[in-house]
Structure prediction request, 312 residues.
Amino acid sequence: MAGKDLLSISDLNPEDIRLLISNAVDMKSGGWTSSLGGKTLALVFEKPSLRTRLSFEIAMQQLGGQAIYLSPDEVGLGHRESVPDVARVLSRYADAISVSTFSHGTLETLAAYASVPVINALSDLEHPCQALADFLTIYEKKGELAGLAVAYVGDGNNVANSLLLVASQIGVDFRIAAPGGYQLQEDILRKAREYAVGSGAHILCTEEPRLAVTEADVVYTDAWASMGQEAEAEPRRQVFAGYQVNEELLALARADAIFMHPLPAHRGEEVSENILDCRQSVVFDQAENQLHLQKALLAGMLGSLEIPLANY
Ligand code: CP
Prediction:
């Protein structure tokens, strides 16, 4: 990972993914020695954020480096200043740039002109750090990854894209239940199917939530309308009405299945009132694990970290 961009899960191979998860496990348990003293991460965020922003900032702080948050109004990415010029300037100050943006194209342009590593902290196409932290959580809860089945119910959005790309690389079955017109992007699906040939993962795309969830090890959902889709919120509520993850749907999964959501959640919409608080819910472990995953990622990108692979 050293010196490389992370714009997509496709920038990683299965060994990278396993190493990141393994390093994050080690760092979480205190078995790490990396220091990012003197290193600076610039956070260029066009979108509001609680978890992603804080996890990157605290990760840098805990590793001895610093993070500087730049709000949309300050930078004016593509408005006040061109994206290539912002990339060139940030590269003169910071050791890496973490970007949360509406358009994946903006991220790619920024990475093309930056001379330091660029991390996708969220784009309309992918949310790779979220997906990696989620698989860290799945590994912690299940003790293994290969052979599990993840059922995603709802919008085939950026989070779903990244989850699928991780799953298909490391041999985790991925089932998505989404209404017609809201399924995964065809090019992401094509790439995942190529990965699955090598890993043995099975991929199922259906419009039927019950089919996806039955006997799954993990049940996952996300907001029906992502940031930037506020105008579509009401029509989406109608389209997705049959896609709520509730106690009845979760009961179709394996008895030891876990429930996941990247948060923020909308109780009464994509989740029933109490599902976030049920015994199977691991949503706050997910949120915490964003910190541990970002630490492993930043240490691998910017540090001189030497952590032995965990035995898994
Ligand atoms: N899960 C997630 O990305 O949360 P934030 O939007 O708060 O960063």
Remarks:
- The pocket of phosphoric acid mono(formamide)ester is lined by residues 49-52, 122, 130, 262-263 (CB under 6 Å).
